[in-house]
Design a protein that fits this description.
Blueprint (H helix, E strand, L loop, with lengths): L16 E4 L9 H4 L5 E6 L4 E5 L5 E7 L7 E4 H14 L2 E5 L4 H7 L8 E4 L4 E4 L2 E2 L1 H4 L3 H4 L15 H12 L4 E3 L7 E4 L4 H14 L4 E6 L2 E6 L3 H13 L6 E4 L6 H5 L3 E4 L5 H10 L4 E2 L7 H58 L10
Parallel strand pairs: 1-6, 1-14, 6-7, 14-15, 15-16
Antiparallel strand pairs: 2-3, 3-4, 4-5, 7-8, 8-9, 10-11, 11-13, 12-13
C-alpha cells in the first residue's frame, strides 16, 4: 500500500477534533501485534504495566487496560503524551468511541488519555466532560429503555431492542448472547459456526426492527438503536461542540467504525482488522492514511497521532500568522487614524491662529 504524508491542503479548515476507536486502534492486544513482529517483553497485571518492543529494538512503556472478555490490552505512554499535546498545546478535542460495555469503560477510564467525551456501547452512552449526556440518550429511550436500567435482566425489558434479543435467543440455537452491563446494546457471537451464522443472517434480514441497527465488531455482532451507533454519536457531538466534518479526524480499524469514519473528513488507520476495511483502504479510499507500521500495535497508533500532531502544528502556526497579520493590520489602521487625528488637530490650530486679531504695538515716547 502506498502511503502519502497527511498535509493540510490550502484553505482547508484546521483540525479541531479527533474521534478514536479504542480496541485495535488506541489500545492493542498481544495476540494481534505479535503477528506483525512486535514482542511483549513484560506484563504485570497487578501494576497494570507492560513493555513492548519492535523489530528495530525500539521499546515502549505501556499501561495495561482491563477487558471483561479479551484480557488486558496495551496503550503506550507515548500515545498518552501525544494526545495530551494535541489537546493542551493545540486545542484539539479528543473523544473515544467504543462498543465496549459501561463496566469496561469505567474500569479503563483513568488509564486512557484525557478526553473531552467518552462514548461506549456502540454510541448509545455518552459522557461529556465526565457527565452522562441524558439529552442524547432520551432520543432513543423508547427503543432500549432508560439509561439507569442496565442492572435489570434482558427478560424484564420490554422495548424493541430487547424483544429482538429474546427472539434471537429463541430462534437461533447455539448463539452466544451477551447483555451483561449493557444499557443501549447487546452482543452476540456465532463461535465461527457456519450454520449458526447463516441462521443469524436470515433473522436479521427478515426480523430486525426498523429502529434497531447491527454492526460487526471483532467477529461479534452488535445490536443498538439506529439513532445511536458510532456515527450517530459522533454527529451529535460535532453539533454539540460546533465542529464540522472537515475539521474532524477518525482513528479506526474495523467495520463497526465505518459510520464514525463517514462523519469525519480525515481518516487514519493504525490497523486493518476486517477484510472490508482493508479493501476500502487499499482500493476504494485513496485519501485514507494507513500507517506504514500498520498492525504493529502501539507503534502504529503513535505514527498516526504524530501525523495528526504535525498537521495541528501547521494549523497553529497558520493561525498564529493570521493573528499577527490581523494585529499588524490593526496597528497600521490605528497608526493611520492617529496620523489623521494629528493632521486634523494641526489644521484646527492653524485656522484658530489665523482667526485671532493681531495685537497692535504700543509706542512709548
Amino acid at each position: 500500500v502506498a502511503h502519502a504524508l497527511l498535509s493540510r491542503p490550502p484553505q482547508s479548515p484546521p483540525l479541531r477534533a479527533i474521534f478514536s476507536d479504542i480496541d485495535g486502534t488506541l489500545v492493542h492486544y498481544a495476540k494481534d501485534f505479535t503477528k506483525h513482529g512486535i514482542r511483549l517483553l513484560s506484563s504485570d497485571e497487578t501494576a497494570l504495566t507492560a513493555i513492548v518492543e519492535n523489530e528495530n529494538g525500539d521499546r515502549r512503556k505501556c499501561r495495561l487496560l482491563p477487558s471483561s472478555t479479551m484480557g488486558p490490552a496495551c496503550i503506550s505512554e507515548r500515545t498518552i503524551e501525544l494526545v495530551d499535546e494535541l489537546r493542551a498545546e493545540h486545542g484539539v478535542m479528543f473523544c473515544v468511541v467504543t462498543a465496549a460495555r459501561k463496566s469496561t469503560m469505567v474500569s479503563r477510564w483513568d488509564l486512557l488519555p484525557r478526553c473531552d467525551a467518552h462514548v461506549c456501547e456502540s454510541g448509545s452512552r455518552i459522557w461529556v466532560n465526565g457527565i452522562p449526556d441524558e439529552v442524547f440518550a432520551n432520543q432513543f429511550v423508547n427503543v432500549c429503555g432508560p439509561m439507569n436500567r442496565e442492572v435489570e435482566g434482558a427478560d424484564e425489558r420490554m422495548e424493541p431492542l430487547w424483544q429482538f434479543y429474546r427472539k434471537l435467543r429463541e430462534r437461533v440455537p447455539g448463539l452466544t448472547m451477551d447483555s451483561r452491563s449493557y444499557y443501549g446494546m447487546f452482543r452476540v457471537g456465532t463461535n465461527g459456526d457456519v450454520a449458526i451464522e447463516a441462521a443469524l443472517h436470515d433473522i436479521i434480514r427478515t426480523s430486525l426492527p426498523d429502529n434497531v441497527s447491527c454492526a460487526t465488531n471483532l467477529g461479534k455482532y452488535d445490536f443498538y438503536p439506529s439513532v445511536a451507533g458510532k456515527g450517530g454519536a459522533v454527529s451529535y457531538l460535532q453539533k454539540l461542540f460546533g465542529i464540522s466534518k472537515s475539521e474532524t479526524a477518525a482513528l479506526f480499524d474495523d467495520d463497526n467504525d465505518l459510520p464514525m469514519a463517514e462523519q469525519c473528513g480525515i481518516h487514519m488507520l493504525p490497523g486493518l482488522t476486517s477484510d472490508s476495511v482493508k479493501a476500502a483502504a487499499i482500493c476504494e479510499q485513496p485519501s485514507w492514511y494507513v500507517a506504514n507500521t500498520v498492525g504493529q500495535g502501539v507503534f502504529a497508533i503513535e505514527e498516526c497521532l504524530e501525523v495528526l500532531l504535525d498537521r495541528a502544528r501547521v494549523d497553529s502556526s497558520s493561525s498564529r500568522r493570521q493573528q499577527l497579520q490581523e494585529q499588524q493590520l490593526q496597528h497600521d489602521e490605528d497608526g493611520l487614524r492617529k496620523s489623521d487625528d494629528i493632521e486634523e488637530l494641526l489644521r484646527e490650530v492653524k485656522e484658530a491662529t489665523m482667526n485671532v486679531p493681531m495685537a497692535k504695538n504700543k509706542v512709548t515716547r
